[in-house]
Amino acid sequence: MGEETIVDVRGLNHWFGSGEMRKQALFDVSLTLHRGNFTVLMGPSGSGKTTVLTLVGCLRAVQDGSLRLLGQELNGASEAQLVGLRRRLGFIFQAHNLHESLTAAQNVMMGLQVHGGLSDNTAEQAAIHALGLVGLSERTTYLPANLSGGQKQRVAVARALVSSPALVLADEPTAALDKDSAAEVVDLLKRMGRARGTTTLLVTHDNRILDRADRILTLEDGRIIHVEDRS
Amino acid sequence: MNRLLQRLFGRLPLGWLQLTHNRTRFAAALAGVAFANVLVFVQLGIMNSMATATLRPYAFFQPDVMISAGDANSLTDGSNVARQWLLQAMADPDVADGMSLFIANVHWERGDKDISLTTFGIDPAKPAFLAPRIAGDLARLEVQDAAILDRRARGLGKAEAAAIRPQTPLSFETQGRTVTAYTTFAGGGGFGADGYMLVSDQTFLSLFPARRSAAPDHILLTLRPGAQPEAVVTRLKTLISDPSLRIRTYAQAAQDDLRYQQAKRPTGIIFGFGVLIGVLVGLVIVYQVLSTDVADHLREYATFKAMGYGPGFFLGVVFEEALVLGILGFIPGLIVGTTILTLMGAITTLPLAMTPSMAISVFLGTIVFSALSGAVATRRLAAADPADLF
């Protein structure tokens, strides 16, 4: 019985800059993410974690090697294909990146609206439901300025998960949070991921998260040097 | 409001929410748009009033063709025309009648007021050349030094003007003679004079002894029924032996005068520039507001890009903001503009007023130029690169 493959990376190389300044950031990176897995990507700063995340997230063009996301090859994909694929992903950033002019519910609705019109109330109901799942049902009409750091990051989690994406990409989502909020956010990601069959790729240097991972990949100087399976 | 817009757009009214989030900046932006609107309204109002004032005296007469000197850019400008051309023109079978028109300004000293009246000397026996509302009174001018006075002349009281009747005429001194107004007509002050006066050609020549009856300012012609003015003009140009003369249909002469006032005279050019400046000010204000707004939200826009929103979405948001600014800024602009024009009109007695066509064209202009500013402002969106968020 083969597990469903969400991401399949083979021999990925990546360079930044050009000419004399050209510098290789990734060397022959290969990795596979299966449906429902919670994978943590670790490594010191400058090791290439973020580059991997932006490549998998269709935010950069693949230069060399193969990267298959949800069955589609990204090497040579058009910008329109990349934009289309991004709609099937959920992003969580180090900063919450909520829109200051939108309420918590409206911010979450932005995660749904990308899939089509909002002419009826179902999107709003879905957003309020998602906020309930992250424990913010009392705060749906608050503007981000009136929420705490942890609450804002939870809104961001709700925004990323509301459209049930196949893959959630998270970049140090706990860096700006205290210990309790951090644990809460990661548990939330994991729990909601389980419930919806979402695959998660999370970049961090935060050791507090490791014991919750199914698999830990360690990156150093652009190469994967260690793979640890925990499930 | 939000829900209404949400239903209208089929998406969250992000532009509206973004603009209204910072109330102070929003108010300042609207004030800026309103200011630009007022600027354009006042300049347009003055330009319009110039057009109204320029065309007004043409409406006193109703000939078909006018013959003027080559340098006669307006009714009151330019050299005289020899009356012999009138006789030559009469040779054309389609020309029914001709009349000499004399024009000069007189000054009427009234205590501390000096009223200048553009005075037309006409043949009282030829009412066909005058607008029906005036033609009926022409017989009054047969009397030496009789006049028909502009009841809307600046400096003439309303009650005073209304009291002028054949039984109670108003006499005043000008050009060393006593002129008596037996009746009135509706003219109005313009940029060149405070009002108008009609006298007979004989009275005109007594008022201006230096003028000669053989040298009027313009020659007016009426045509036989069914004649084509343009065709007659073409024939007259070959029939009349002086090629320097301007032979035009009367309507063409009025349009030429208007174009001359707007494009060649300094006042017209200045107010035309005023409109341009107003448009530019509005353009810059809206562009500044929108591009600052885009720059302030680059991070959020980059996030939306990462989430899969395409360029059309962002263009829509910026256009939405441009429309909100244009529409909401126009309302105070219209109110203040109308007030200023009405006040200016009351003070100067120039025909200054807000017209529906002005309001509509400025509104459409505001929308178009706001959208244009928005389109330019979206160029900054390229700087929102989602790869930089990580």
Describe the structure.
- The complex is a heterodimer of chains A (231) and B (390).
- Chain A is built from six helices and ten strands.
- With 231 residues, chain A is α/β, with parallel strands linked by helices.
- Chain A has one domain: Rossmann fold (3-Layer(aba) Sandwich), CATH 3.40.50.
- Chain A starts with a strand and ends with a strand.
- In chain B, helix 3 crosses helix 12, helix 3 packs across helix 13 (356-377) and helix 10 (266-296) packs across helix 13.
- Chain B has 390 residues and is an alpha+beta fold.
- Chain B has helices at residues 2-9, 14-21, 23-55, 84-89, 132-135, 158-162, 201-207, 229-239, 250-263, 266-296, 298-307, 311-348, 356-377; strands at residues 65-68, 95-110, 113-122, 146-150, 170-174, 177-185, 195-200, 218-223, 246-249.
- Chain A binds chain B through residues 50, 53-54, 57, 59-60, 83-89, 91, 93-95, 97-102, 106, 109-111, 113-114, 117-119, 171, 203, and chain B through 6-7, 10-12, 14, 17-18, 20-21, 297, 299-300, 303-304, 306-310, 386-387, 389-390.
3D shape of chain A? globular
Radius of gyration of chain A, CA atoms, in whole angstroms: 18 Å
Helix content of chain B: 40-55%
What is the number of independent domains of chain A?
Answer: 1
Unreliable stretches of chain A (pLDDT < 50, length at least 5) are: none
Question: How is the CATH topology of chain A named?
Answer: Rossmann fold
* Percent of residues in β-strands of chain A: 25-35%
Interface with most residues? A-B, 34 and 24 residues
Topology as H/E string of chain A? EEEHEEHEHHHEHEEE
How many domains would you count in the coordinates of chain B?
Answer: 2
CATH class of chain A: Alpha Beta
Structural class of chain A: alpha/beta
